[in-house]
Amino acid sequence: MSIIKLNNRAVKDATAFGSITGLGNLVFISRSTASSSSSLSITSGLTSTHKEYIFVFNNLHPASNSNLQFQTSTNGGSSYGVTATTTFFYASHQENDGEAIVTYNTGRDHAQSTDFIYLTGDNMEASASDASVSGYLHLFEPSSTTFVKHYISNTDHVADGPYQQNNYSAGYFNTTSAINAIQFKLTTGNIDSGTIDMYGVL
Length: 202
What we know:
- By secondary structure, this protein is mainly β.
- The protein is about 0% helix and about 55% strand.
- Strand 10 and strand 11 form a beta hairpin.
- It has one domain: Jelly Rolls (Sandwich), CATH 2.60.120.
- The protein has an 8-stranded antiparallel β-sheet, with no helix packed on it.
């Protein structure tokens, strides 16, 4: 990906174009594949090499109606539960057009909590074989020993109903220790199938 820079103030007056390359390039690091997995843990690759990491969820299917969550670690994955403050809201629309809402969900946010953090709002539907959750999570500068660690996420899933739900979560891990591992799991049951791809951002 590249961006264009102009040697004049307006495009119509530009006499030459140049480009800045390498800005925002994604570097593939790893893929975690679920197969009736109780959790997916990534314990390598979160280093100071990149200041931003992106985790892409591709069609994660739950074994039972449940929610996708995550937490981080500062000890290489020996334990997960870094203190975090977060916020959460979602938009949803029923398949039968019966309801369409946008709401802030106080039951999905945290205030200085070490609990796992919600990435989906209402329970994902497990009974439909074609139902799943997809989306992404951005984690910023996890190796910093100066700043807290911010994250933002956006997921979309088929909720039990059925209805579509688009979820937004953001927050920060209140630690100046380096975060070096991350774990994803469901509130109940296993992750039947799907992948989580990890990228570093140059």
